[in-house]
Amino acid sequence: xxxxxxxxxxxxxxxxxxxLITSLGGLFSERSGVINIGLEGLMLMGMFVGAYVISxxxxxxxxxxxxxxxxxxxxxxxxxxxxxxxxxVTLNANQxxxxxxxxxxxxxxxxxxxxxxxxxxxxxxxxxxxxxxIPFLSDxxxxxxxxxxxxxxxxxxxxxxxxxxxxxLYKTRFGLRLRACGEHPHAADSAxxxxxxxRYMAVMISGACAGLGGATFIVTLSGxxxxxxxxxxxxxxxxxxxxxxxxxxxxxxxxxFGFASTVANVSQVIPVLAQxxxxxxxxxxxxxxxxxxILSSKSSQAPKAIGEPYDKGKR
Amino acid sequence: xxxxxxxxxxxxxxxxxxxxxxxxxxxxxxxFRGGLMNIERVGNTLATATPLIFxxxxxxxxxxxxxxxxGGAGQMLIGGLCATAIGLTFDWPxxxxxxxxxxxxxxxxxxxxxxxxxxxxKFNVHEVVSTIxxxxxxxxxxxxxxxxxxxxxxxxxESQRIPAAASLKVxxxxxxxxxxxxxxxxFLAIIVVVISAFILERTTLGYELKAVGYNRxxxxxxxxxxxxxxxxxxAIAGALAGLGGATFYVGFASNMQIGVLPAQGFDGxxxxxxxxxxxxxxxxxxxxxxxxxxxKGFMNAMxxxxxxxxxxxxxxxxxxxxxxxxxxxxWDKLLKFNRDxxxxxKKKESLEVEAGGDQ
Lengths: 315, 359
Fold this sequence. Notes:
A: mainly alpha; two-stranded antiparallel ribbon; 4 strands; B: mainly alpha; 0% strand; globular
């Protein structure tokens, strides 16, 4: 049993990390007052851009291709999210419909382009992110084996982003303003905050994070773009809600979901786990999110102005 | 509003075709020709449109009560599972079997969607979030139930094919449209469009549902049971999507694939937006999307354009349907501006003429 946990842990963490960064992206957007159902599509865009960039340059730059791919995915994720920001902030569109449109545009256009580039619609990368074992730290009993062996550099990068994001949201002027836009945009505006600009930035940050999340999934776990994000973006959205729109809550939620998904994925080959029906493990994140919504219905931590287009004229 | 969104969607498609080195005129010619060029393709267009009609009606019905049902995909899956399960289990004469299949799909979808309705009514859980969660719960239920109980003979990832008696396809209709996918589901869709229009426009139920949608508080103050109507509206929306699932999985197709959320569930949102949430508008919009989806394969065969162009156009239409209020407002402003300019110029001219006449 202990060995099993040691075996599963690296995979569970690898599965958690793309969810974590995507969910953090959603946190920025929703905390500024813009619902982001388009996380799935933004992630898919990151997967496509990451896989395309890496597969086309990895023979020339074998070492750095992965990092360039991640960077490109974050950049194009932010660019693609601009479409959502433009609809929600400038055009006062229905944020849910715009998010759905983002998902549909992403899944149509990425496959369209992938087919145009390769003919098959799949983009494979040869070299993913290498697994590294951190010297000294990996010698710590128990924890060393769980957290510091077989890790990816992206895992540490994204955990760093988590710490930075928490600091940014709760300890800086930018974060306070951003959260104010999601709670009471009119008050924020009268205090001199440019609500439109803050929301644009927040949505673009969410796009960059989700794009990075998608590409991270490609370079660590899947190794290929095949035209779908398989619900990872929606899982990240569930984690955002289950984590009650708080960074550390999101970390806990994504780890829960990542672990459950990993157990479900490998349960077929490990006898001990085969007894747990996969159906329970796979539906667990969604069922528990529904339960969390019911339990928190009286005291929801959701941003108060979420989903409302900001109209200066109503101040 | 709808016309704008469609035009902008087609323009976006044209831009994408040009960007990938294709001639958009050829592309659109083959796209529409592929959807309409002969009786078989017309049949396929109608067959493709059938689940879209149901999915669109589902979204539109919930919209009328101020609810946003994006759980159409999951409701279709559950409806399809009920239909497939009955079709594979019972060996009854076709008319009875089909009737039971349709009722089972309807009930399955209705129950599946009434849970988010209940959560909305009792706990004020936002239906957008809960229907997303329900979609993925349905996705994983199908993923595990189908291989376990209805596994096909060749592949782990699909169910057995349903017998001919359980299919909505009937020989006379198939041969009338020279071998197309069209099935009884299309006629069911027409009947349901008529019933939906009747319920919404002519009954107390429809009046109450719409009243709740216009203003919840006012409806409550007027003695309408808001919670009951919220649950009922979601249940009806789910029943419609469940029927759509039946027409897709035991009509258009003959088995269920696992690991796929049916795209029609989301296309239904586009259909409802484009059809302005009216039953006949939904019908027309679904046929339009049916043409795009049926024609894309032909276009792909005749040109180098990947078939996903149709999905891109539909997705862009949704995007612009969401944003078109403002675009339309600006367009009106532009028109007014031009008209004012024109009037001013005319006035000026006539003044100049008058001034000229005085001299």
